[in-house]
Amino acid sequence: MTGARPALGLCFLRALVWRRRRRRQGGPPEAVTLQDLLELHGDGSLVVVLLVLSILTVTPLAGVGTVLSFAIFAISWRWACGGESRTRLPFEESLRNIALSPAWGERALRFLATLYARADRCLHPRWPGVFHSRWMPLWAAWIAVMAAIILLPLPLGNIIPSLSLVLLCLAWMFRDGVACLAALLMGAAAMAYTAAFGHLAWAMGLQLQAGVRSWLGM
User: Which of 151, 186, 150 has the alpha carbon at shortest distance from 169?
Assistant: First the structure.
């Protein structure tokens, strides 16, 4: 994966340009599937699968965030058992058929092209100790926590944990411990948002209960 890093941004950019050129020439618009995104990476590692799934959780597909959060839970378990090198998931074949509309597929390609271009400029191997195998269970737990937040029905609640997972995947791909720190900070923000929303919902529930009791004369 390390040797192919600089070419990833260019690879996704070429795929985007090819699709746009084909559309201008009168070709039918094509959906972008999870299989397409994984093949463009040229790498089926668990890290790549997690990164792509994390990005797809923020797309406007009904129920996809819920489905993919369970897939991310499964990845966290595999991560704890054997690290990022264990690739196969029991339901991976069915996940590969998830498809984005042509418009959102192009957005995903453009995002990945930009993401890898910027990561290649900013990230480089640092703080190797955070990637030691003894920390794998803790990183797996972190992935599971982010998956749990994605699963919750919070308004825009899947964006911040998804970004935390994307940063974690980039950190692993580039072996950059500073990116791991950024992932932790982003995840902490996701947990703070979840806690604040939960506190607000609880306070509103108590207020509603008091209003109902008052209305009923209890």
Answer: 186
